[in-house]
Design goal:
316 residues; two-stranded parallel sheet; 8 strands
Length: 316
């Protein structure tokens, strides 16, 4: 996370979700994974190559979701009265515990930085820690010692929180893969890392991996890894409240394909007269959604191909 992103539309969904997690009884802490803008993001004249954090004009339909939260973020993002930075976000006291770890991360001192973060949230007794990197969980194309690594969360850093009985919520930037394979790849890698560790034996509980998506303007995903059954129950309730309420009505939040989605819920993402996007990734839809889609749209050529694919997958 960088100061120049503070208060944009992404923070609107982010803090709405964190507040809902608090409403469900979880004590929430925030690790910004704060960095200064790296040189590789800048042009020779010092300007930024990408204008991230530019969505600071909140549409009226979104403001209605939480007028007080919107007002605070607009004040910060548009430089009204206070500077646009993470400290201003913290000073709004949007979260009950005000537990923010805002030390800057560097490649050289990352291990010490991480240990200090763990100690900070131990001291604050946070039950869930939100990790807010620029990009998300580490991808295979980025080395842990590279300059770009500061924009990512390492999988073992997540497990260190789980080992301390703290659930984790991680921001993750959506890749260009179809949604279901994208999430499944992350789940499989996380499960692999958990299996390699001694967590299952120490916790006597298999951590759950849960997802929620905020697709408005730019797709933002949040991935939860639970430390205990009680936390998992509260996180599920928070997610359910977000994707069934006013945030869902205004297309700010939606249920991902991994979370027991129905055909009706999936179809509602798209305009009624739109079939191109709706059918684009039919091969990568959950099986239950594909079956219902075939049943409702038997005459459609794509659905015939979908039916053939289902038959092939389930042939004797």
């Amino acid at each position: 996370m960088q100061d120049r992103y503070a208060g944009d539309i992404g923070d609107f969904g982010k803090f709405a979700l964190l507040k809902e997690l608090e409403n469900q009884g979880l004590s929430v802490g925030v690790n910004w994974y704060k960095i200064s803008p790296p040189d590789f993001e800048k042009n020779l004249d010092g300007s930024f190559k990408q204008n991230d954090g530019k969505h600071i004009d909140f549409p009226d339909d979104l403001i209605k979701c939480d007028p007080d939260l919107a007002s605070e973020l607009i004040r910060i993002s548009q430089g009204q009265e206070v500077p646009r930075n993470l400290k201003s976000l913290q000073n709004t006291h949007l979260l009950k515990d005000d537990a923010y770890y805002d030390a800057s991360i560097t490649v050289e001192d990352r291990v010490l930085w991480h240990q200090n973060a763990l100690a900070y949230f131990e001291g604050r007794q946070s039950e869930l820690v939100f990790l807010d990197p620029d990009n998300g969980l580490l991808v295979k194309s980025v080395g842990k010692g590279s300059k770009r690594s500061v924009k990512y969360v390492f999988y073992e850093e997540v497990l260190d929180y789980i080992d301390r009985r703290k659930s984790v919520l991680v921001y993750n930037h959506r890749s260009r893969k179809p949604e279901l394979p994208y999430f499944r790849e992350i789940e499989e890698r996380m499960q692999k890392e958990i299996s390699k560790s001694e967590l299952k034996q120490k916790l006597e509980y298999e951590p759950e991996i849960l997802e929620i998506t905020f697709p408005r303007f730019s797709i933002r995903d949040y991935i939860a890894v639970t430390a205990c059954q009680e936390h998992a129950k509260k996180i599920r309730k928070a997610f359910d409240a977000m994707w069934t309420g006013v945030w869902a009505d205004n297309k700010m939040c939606q249920k991902p394909l991994t979370m027991d989605i129905t055909y009706t819920e999936y179809r509602a993402r798209f305009p009624k007269d739109s079939k191109d996007k709706f059918l684009k990734y039919y091969q990568a839809l959950p099986k239950e959604v594909m079956i219902e889609m075939v049943g409702r749209m038997k005459a459609n050529t794509t659905c015939k191909a979908c039916a053939a694919g289902l038959w092939y997958q389930n042939r004797p």
